[in-house]
Amino acid sequence: MKPSIPQGTRDFSPAEVRKRQYIFNTLKTIFETYGFQPLETPSMENLSTLMGKYGDEGDRLIFKILNNGLDNPDKEEKIRAGFEKVLEGKNHTDITERALRYDLTIPFARYVVMHQNELAFPFRRYQMQPVWRADRPQRGRYREFWQCDCDVVGSNSLINEAELLCIYQSAFHQLKIPGIAIRINSRKLLAGLAEVAGMPDRMMEITIALDKLDKIGWEGVTKELVQRGISEQGIRAIEEIISISGTNEEKLTALEQRMAGSEIALQGVAELRESLAYYATLAAAAWQGNIAVDISLARGLNYYTGVIVEVTTDAVKMGSVGGGGRYDDLTGLFGLKGLSGVGISFGIDRIYDVMEELNLFPPQLETGSKVMLLNFGGENEQYGLTVLHNLREQGIAAEMYPDAVKFDRQMKYANKRNIPFVLLPGDEEREKQRVSLKNFTTGEQKMLSVQEVISLLKA
After folding, report:
1. Distances (CA, A) of 247 to 143, 251, 280, 290
2. Rounded Cα–Cα distance for residues 369 and 395 (Å)
């Protein structure tokens, strides 16, 4: 059988893993600087934990796990019977009770509720783990991919929104990704948009349609709004509002005027204005122009209730590389009412693809070892192992070719691995208690003491 992997998944080579770790380590350093704490949760959750939290479309993308009844013949027979009913198009609850996590936010809310008596609130956490979605694989979209979240739960302050915006800007600045644009909106404005359209009870239908604006354009959104039962007059009102342009303050002022009859819309405008004011105080001056109020931004997940945000880059044709928002009562889904939170997520796989296409990874990530010792066998092998030990004791990443094979074969191996330095512990070097160091970049070779080699490699 020809080996393969499931569609929508990927293997990562050593070089690719190092590049991904570079992204993770950059983000981890930023999160820690902002006072966030690390957290991990299981790959699988109870199905009841996940279902009903992401909307109808999200629920369909949850990977469900088939129950295992092999330890109980009666249970196994029941599961098989249930599975056959599902194949016939009938619902049956006995065949699955667990699922792979769809995102990191719902498991985080579940964790907070389970450990509420142990946590100090506000609780600031970051989490980097894979998630799974039964989506159609395409460029930048996978069935298994990593998310990287940071959230604050237990605080209503809009300072949190501003800090998360700063984290986005700091991260993409340090990763050197060009063309970053951050769009910001409020689900309260979207609720007000539904009121202005004369259909306050159809906010979710309007949101789901608007969420596709970048993909299908306004004409496509219009068709979907019609299909969802939005009136022609309501569609015109929506178009008029999402077409508002200008600076952020000009947009907010215009929204106040045109949506003056909607109390919830005015709350959304006030929260956006306050979040941007906090951000102006916290952020570097060079970052100020990258954030734009966008009334068409929807973020389709059901649990968002306040400020929402999405990050894109125009340097590569790609979907969003980050997004998030405020959720006022996410923990209420698990019985803990009145605990507001806000969080953002980084799309690690898309960020990786962007950086790879733009060649943004530092070249030194391509190898783990800084130096390789050639193996000349016999006493020279023993001498080489002693030198190898001394290098590692000084914290220098080093390896020795394990077999005493031809010189050319060992040099080709080092070159293919992109190891920058090679040490030659031959007869003369051993007798003089020295080693010859070859620099693969310059081609220069010279004989040095082991201590001189250590000093040079550390420098």
Report:
1. 38, 6, 14, 12
2. 11
CATH 3.30.750.24 corresponds to the domain 14-62+102-357: no
CA distance 66 to 51: 16
Beta strand 96-100 with 64-66 is antiparallel
pLDDT digits (tens, 9 = 90+) for 226-249: 888 888 888 888 889 988 999 999
Find, among 256, 245, 114, the residue nearest to 196 by Cα.
Answer: 256
* Distance between CA atoms of residues 96 and 98, nearest Å: 6
Nearest to 417 by CA among 367, 358, 350: 367
> How many angstroms separate the most distant Cα atoms in the chain?
92
Check if the beta carbon of residue 326 is closer than 8 Å to that of residue 306.
yes
In the Cβ-directed half-sphere of 264, how many Cα atoms lie within 13 Å?
Answer: 16
Domain boundaries, the chain: 14-62+102-357, 368-458
Please say whether the beta carbons of 272 and 186 come within 8 A.
yes
Sequence length of the chain is 459
169-209 confidence digits (pLDDT tens): 999 999 999 999 999 999 999 999 989 888 888 888 888 88
What angle do helix axes 187-196 and 203-210 make, rounded to 10 degrees?
110
Could you tell me which residues are beta bridge partners of residue 423? 373, 437
Q: Encoding tokens for residue 449? A: 């003491």
Residue 373 pairs with which residues in a beta bridge? 400, 423
CA 343 to chain centre: 12
* SS3 assignment for 309-370: EEEEECCCCCCCCEEEEEECCHHHHHCCCCCCEEEEEEEHHHHHHHHHHCCCCCHHHHCCCC
- The model carries a pTM of 0.84
Q: Which residue has the tokens 């902002």?
A: 34
Rounded CA gap, 307 and 285, in Å? Answer: 22
Angle ∠(200,206,211) on CA atoms, nearest 5: 145
CATH 3.40.50.800 fits 368-458, yes or no: yes
The pairs formed by 16-23 with CB atoms below 8 angstroms and a separation of 24 or more are: 16/352, 18/365, 18/366, 18/368, 19/352, 19/355, 19/356, 19/361, 19/365, 20/146, 20/348, 20/352, 22/361, 22/362, 22/365, 23/175, 23/348, 23/351, 23/352, 23/355
Residue type for position 138: Q
